[in-house]
Amino acid sequence: MGSLYKRGRIWWIKYYRNGRMMRDSCHSNRETDAKKILAMRDGDIARGIPVTPRLMRVTVGELLEDVKNDYKVNGKKSYPDLEYRCRLYLEPFFGNKRAAAVTTADVRRFILERQTQRASNTAINRELAALKRAFSLALEGGKILFKPHVPMLAENNIRKGFFEQDQLNALLKQLPEHVKPVVRFAYITGWRTRSEILMLQWKQVDFQAGEIRLDPGTTKNKEGRIFPMTQELQKILEEQKAEHDEMKQSGVICPWIFPYQGKSFKSFKTTWKRACVKAGIPWAIPHDFRRTAVRNLVRAGISERVAMQMTGHKTRSVFDRYHVVSEGDLKEAKTKLDLKAGTISGTEGGKSEQRSGLSY
Asked: Which of 133, 182, 123 is nearest to 153 (CA)?
């Protein structure tokens, strides 16, 4: 059994492990906090969990270094962003603090400081997510015994959400010829423009099977994906194949489906912004094609699960957030409402209900 004592206003605990006396500061002037920590120490010792004074001295800066290493080991593309946020914001505020002494109040002070710097809730949440990950890794690795609650902020990213056909047509009129097939492809498939569509190579296209494939490990969720070659997609790919064959005859071997002058496509972002302004849709972003493709697939009668597999959505949040429903479901709802109100006869309603059960 251990014991409690005070040094000034701060409570300390004394306990024994393998016959060796150990002392730790509780960093609190409340006796109840000291009793809780002592009980945790006694419990950890009884379960054989390593307990050393080092547990109370590890700093948040060390935990953030572990997060960086975790990102490097797993080859995460967001590592530069993580390193930037740690170096400019998290390390100056938390770096020298002992991890065991960080409280939710400290996290809220960090949030307030970032808000005074006019940082958006989205930016602050990315930093808080890195901090949460740091404490989680430390807890898993036995560097700390508990982690503080890290509150997240509400994000309000206002987006139009979908591309309508007239907006797509207006945009295509403003785009250079070599960019148009990329946008047409994105509108149909909903695939990510830069990391998926612009990286597509001819070896991923199977005209005989009528499929376009994304290999496992090349997508954001690391899962492979297949999209059936619709008539419009086949037309786009055949046009690109004709250009590819022309370049091949002139001695240029290009593996990409959507190249620019025989090279990898790199100028999409600037071209996109300029064309959107001219088309009268300055709010539009390429990610809108993902939501649009899901909506169009569901409207065509394709199930949510299959639509998500085709576009690469791992969760159904896109349906919940943007209220994507099939037109078949809406027609069935209309029929039921009319029956409830008595505006159609039972016979007619029965036929309607029977029809509504068919795939749209």
From this structure: 123
